[in-house]
Write a structure and sequence with these properties.
Helices cover about 50% and strands about 10% of the residues. It has 5 helices and 7 strands, in the order H-E-H-E-E-H-E-H-E-E-E-H. It folds into 3 domains: about 100 residues; about 100 residues, L1 transposable element, RRM domain (Alpha-Beta Plaits, 2-Layer Sandwich); about 55 residues. It is α+β, with helices and mostly antiparallel strands. The longest helix is centred in the first third of the chain and has 100 residues.
Length: about 325
């Protein structure tokens, strides 16, 4: 048996009513229609909302806000202008200082350049003076050598007798007698006519100043010096040439016969004798205005021309 289909029951028609909103925002929406439909409440508006205030009052408040913004911007602009003015003033001051510094630097550069030029001029002058000093020093040394040669040439025929006591009223005849007796004791033929000049060297009063005798020829002088060395050679100290040998009374005093040297050579001779004593040189003598050293017999003789020669000998030991 076929099934029968029934139509669904009719749904009751419910009248729908649209909710209306009232211009009065304070009025709530009441329920319309079925009990299960509720009305929504409108959002709460504050008092300052344009909807809550009249239009004129709203415009006034907007203008007040706008004025505040303008005043604030104006104040900010004034402050910025003041800052910019200060910065501009500082920049101008810095520029001024820079100009002054630049000017000062320029003056300093000019001063330094002037000093450099003056230094170069002074340096050139000093170099020139130094060169002239060297040339003059060389020239002076040459002149000293020439003067020394002249002095030595004038004394080539002179010899000294040292350590002879001086009499109270000593005359040239007394000096001549002493020289002739000394030469006779040395067995050298010297006559009064062979003496060109004779005198005592200057010195302290009361001291035994050396007697200088100038002979006519240089060979005569050399014979006297050679004879004095030969006389003393191999003799004891008390037997070497002394004052008793030439007839001077009193205690015997040694007599020294040597070349008549200039002051510079005399000082050099003194240094040479001291060097010979300190360094065990057996012989130190002068001949023909030259100073010699010899270590021992059979060794070559060394000519001492200056203190530099003695210094070189010390270094070469």
């Amino acid at each position: 048996m076929p099934r029968t289909q029934r139509s669904p029951p009719a749904t009751p028609v419910v009248s729908k009513q649209r909710a209306t909103s009232s211009p009065d925002i304070s009025t709530n929406v009441t329920e319309v229609g079925p009990s299960n439909v509720t009305a929504r409440h409108k959002r709460f508006c504050p008092d300052f909302s344009p909807e809550q205030q009249p239009l004129a009052q709203s415009n006034s408040r907007f203008e007040s806000f706008e004025n505040k913004i303008v005043n604030m911007l104006t104040t900010w602009k004034q402050e910025q202008d003041a800052v910019l003015n200060r910065i501009t003033s500082d920049i101008n001051e810095v520029k001024k200082q820079n100009r002054e510094i630049h000017k000062t630097n320029t003056e300093i550069e000019k001063a330094i350049e002037f000093m450099n030029q003056a230094y170069e001029t002074m340096k050139t002058t000093v170099e020139k003076l130094e060169q002239e000093r060297v040339e003059q020093r060389t020239y002076i040394i040459e002149l000293e050598k020439k003067v020394l040669d002249l002095q030595q040439n004038s004394r080539t025929s002179s010899f000294e007798i040292r350590n002879i006591p001086q009499g109270e009223k000593e005359t040239n005849d007394d000096l001549t007698s002493i020289v002739l007796r000394t030469c006779n004791k040395l067995e050298v033929s010297v006559k009064q006519a062979d003496l060109r000049d004779i005198y005592r060297m200057p010195g302290k009063k009361g001291s035994n100043r050396p007697i200088v005798a100038e002979l006519v020829t240089v060979p005569q002088k050399n014979r006297v010096l050679q004879a004095a060395r030969m006389f003393n050679k191999g003799r004891a100290s008390i037997e070497k040439l002394n004052t008793n040998h030439i007839g001077i009374s009193g205690d015997a005093k040694p007599i020294y016969v040597s070349d008549h040297l200039s002051n510079s050579l005399r000082q050099l001779f003194f240094e040479a004798r001291k060097y010979a004593s300190d360094n065990e040189y057996k012989f130190c003598w002068s001949q023909n205005n030259k100073i010699f050293l010899r270590k021992s017999e059979g060794m070559p003789s060394i000519i001492i021309k200056s203190l530099a020669c003695l210094n070189n000998l010390s270094k070469s030991k």
